[in-house]
Write a structure and sequence with these properties.
Elements (H helix, E strand, L loop, with lengths): L3 H25 L7 H13 L4 H8 L3 H13 L3 E5 L7 E5 L1 H24 L2 H18 L18
Antiparallel strand pairs: 1-2
Length: 159
């Protein structure tokens, strides 16, 4: 019988390894300009879906000044921009730029390849069950990685 812990570890490791292989290959062409910490920061900001600097800091358990420093560096490099809230003009949301979206497509493209392979390999019923199971893991079993306490007060009114 397969060990689920080992399978999850292997899948997560391969996803990370593929991403890092692609990122490192870009260093030789001088395309990649993000440091490791900046890459992690951008991944977190993207996952948090337009957080404020304070929300990013809280989610990462770092000081607001540390988060502001990271954000400033990412803005200077052109990977991030601030979008002013329409409801509260004092509030700014962090948004990845097209430059980062191009950089991040490395990861997204591989996830699509894997999803397509799973769909081809499984019957429609098994594919649906597999998708439902992953959704349950995401929404019900990974609650310790939730965004509780960092919800946006005026989500949907950023642009």
């Amino acid at each position: 019988m397969l060990d689920l812990k080992e399978v999850l570890h292997n899948v997560y490791g391969k996803l990370r390894l593929h991403f890092y292989m692609q990122v490192y290959s870009r260093f030789e062409n001088r395309e990649a300009t993000l440091t490791t910490v900046e890459t992690f920061s951008m991944e977190a900001i993207t996952t948090l879906d337009h957080p404020t600097v304070a929300q990013f800091a809280k989610a990462m358990n770092i000081s607001t000044s540390n988060a502001a420093y990271r954000v400033s560096s990412l803005i200077k490099k052109g990977y991030l921009k601030k979008i002013q809230s329409k409801d509260d003009l004092r509030t700014f949301y962090l948004e990845p730029t097209p430059k980062y979206q191009k950089y991040n497509r490395i990861n997204e493209a591989y996830i699509k390849v894997i999803a397509d392979r799973v769909k081809k390999r499984l019957s429609p019923e098994d594919y649906e069950k597999f998708t439902e199971t992953l959704d349950m893991i995401d929404k019900e079993l990974m609650t310790d990685v939730s965004f509780t306490g960092i919800e946006k007060k005026d989500s949907g009114s950023r642009k």
